[in-house]
Amino acid sequence: CSTNGAQTTVNATIRVTSGTYDGGCQRFNAGSALGDGSQSEGQDPVFRVENGATLRNVVIGNNGADGIHTYNGAVLDNIHWMNVGEDAMTIKSSGTTTVRNIEGYDADDKFFQVNAASTLNVSNCIIHRAGKALRQNGGTTFRVDVTFDRCDINDMNEGVFRTDSSSSTARLTNSRLHDAGTICIGPWASCQQSG
Ligand code: DGU
Ligand code: CA
Ligand code: CA
Ligand code: CA
């Protein structure tokens, strides 16, 4: 997707409950009803993807509000965040979320936020400028299993993976880091980089 395609303003979260929603590389900008893309919590997402459904070919523009929420697993393919809002993507309920072919810029704090016991597999990702690439919700001790493969992560203020759970695992493979801070923050059961 180029970032200068047709633009559309989203005033109510677009819910993807089955099959595939193909955004056609349009640029989706959150309207003020969803939030302002600041660090205030409680903003609404631009997309909510559920039950293994697929969202693809989407540019999230300025305002990014609360990005994309997933419930019970989802697939995100070819997503570009021009300016991440409060965060880029949140896992809201358990399942396997697969994320591939993504690029995002300027998350003031978190890029991926994980709020439920789940599996997150990310491949072919580029993340420019964030506090952390991934944060398991602060204070939670459920298990999250995360893999990042073929990612380029640059300019993290704090680091790549952060958890407070000693049952969670993270693995980073075949990836490039530049100024990415600490790779593993917190008591991970296992957290490793290879390749
Ligand atoms: O526990 O859940 O920052 O999903 C407090 C809240 C907070 C979340 C999180 C998010 O941690 O709102 O963006
Ligand atoms: Ca948050
Ligand atoms: Ca931002
Ligand atoms: Ca959020």
Question: Can you describe this structure?
Answer:
The protein has 195 residues and is mostly beta strands. It has one domain (7-194): Pectate Lyase C-like (3 Solenoid). The protein is built from no helices and 17 strands. The protein has strands at 7-10, 14-16, 20-22, 27-30, 47-50, 54-60, 68-71, 74-81, 89-91, 96-105, 110-114, 118-136, 144-162, 169-173, 176-178, 182-185, 190-194. The two termini are 29 Å apart. The model has no long low-confidence stretch (mean pLDDT 98). One calcium ion (CA) binds next to loops. One calcium ion (CA) binds at residues 66, 86-87, 90, 113.
Specify the overall morphology: globular
- List cofactors, ions and other ligands: D-galacturonic acid, calcium ion
Element string (H = helix, E = strand): EEEEEEEEEEEEEEEEE
Largest sheet: 17 strands, parallel
Summed up, the helix count is 0
* Contiguous runs where pLDDT drops below 50 for at least 5 residues: none
Number of strands: 17
Strand percentage lies at over 45%
Under CATH at level 1, the class stands as Mainly Beta
Helix content: under 10%
Q: Give the second-level CATH assignment, the architecture.
A: 3 Solenoid
Structural class: mainly beta
Q: Looking at CATH, which topology would you report?
A: Pectate Lyase C-like
CATH superfamily: Single-stranded right-handed beta-helix, Pectin lyase-like
Task: Compute the average pLDDT.
Answer: 98
Oligomer: single chain
* C-alpha end-to-end distance: 29 Å
Count of distinct structural domains: 1
Based on CA atoms alone, the radius of gyration comes out at: 15 Å
